[in-house]
């Protein structure tokens, strides 16, 4: 189809994409001065009355459901050749499929997306509708003043639940459709959508579609460290026997939400829980001074120079390898997971602060924070270190540390984001506990010892 100039009052800008039955265009509503997406029935279906009706039924469902979790229909019209079109918000951030193609999602982000997708499907089920084609490319992302919005879209295969026993045509997308959808005249119910939600969850967490049913490879085999209850939920949703699946989208979504909020999935290193109040990168030199004590061969790291780093406000002075002091965050405060008293103050120094939480083994750096006094006795006990949203697996080595300033325990994970070390250390001079996290490409305990020895309260 050649690019038209307008659809009604909507000025066409460019083509966005095409599916089996329709084409979508980016347009502009000059009257309201806003971008919109216009979905138009494809030309080859112009004279197919049943396809016409399916297209219009999609618009009706979306309009009647009128949910923040679904694409909304703002307007509808007909072209001179009798093809219908309807007007929707423009999803400027693409689809979840685009997001998965760009990066591996952190666990919390994947669970957030899945929760919001599930809420959209729950709205459809309450409306009496089965979607039948839930997949990442049919979930759109839109920016808004309050953050990213998730919109379930493309109801071209949607059918009323009341007529489920009368389906006469197989519908869906292989890899996401339930086994019963592959049989014409299959007796479907909302558990077909639950299977699709399980398939989407599998891909959000692993980056891959699940195998064809029956699915026997759990997502944790591709992404070790996932919570066991999450693994079990996804595998139950993907069961070939729909009687083993959660009964509907709400039940599935409620369990995803509970897993996301559970302590087991929220236990991470303190640094991954925090957001910066202020970032300082280019101005790092103003807060970094060379230490008078250089690292010597006796310290086990010949030729490695350390620098002192101090937050603009706070009690901590750190000693870090000078090569690491390229960027830093100071004045960190609790930011997520409902723990408003996680730390009193924190400082992150790293070669690349943006990649700190992504599990990039090439990043070297130090995060230090003072735990509140009421957490002092427990130190960092109970924390499961997480890099790139994946809990660290494998062996852990423990050792004690004691010098004139600090006494406590050090944990080392050799296979977690390079070489990850955590420590909980009690001050010998004040009623405070230091939480320390060190990442470096390889194991150098002497560097960790030097960082601890050079950390002091002022």
Automatic annotation (TrEMBL):
InterPro entries from the xrefs? Kinase-like_dom_sf (IPR011009), Prot_kinase_dom (IPR000719), Protein_kinase_ATP_BS (IPR017441)
Q: Which domain of life is it from?
A: Bacteria
Enzyme Commission number: 2.7.11.1
Q: Where does ATP bind?
A: 39
Broad class of enzyme this protein falls into: transferase
Q: Which Pfam families match?
A: Pkinase
Q: Which PROSITE patterns match?
A: PROTEIN_KINASE_ATP, PROTEIN_KINASE_DOM
Nucleotide-binding is among the record's keywords: yes
Check the record and name the Gene3D superfamilies matching this protein. Answer: Phosphorylase Kinase, domain 1 (3.30.200.20), Transferase(Phosphotransferase) domain 1 (1.10.510.10)
Protein name in the entry: non-specific serine/threonine protein kinase
Keywords for this protein: ATP-binding, Kinase, Nucleotide-binding, Serine/threonine-protein kinase, Transferase
Gene Ontology MF terms in the entry: protein serine/threonine kinase activity
UniProt keyword ATP-binding, yes or no = yes
The UniProt record lists the Protein kinase domain at 10-257
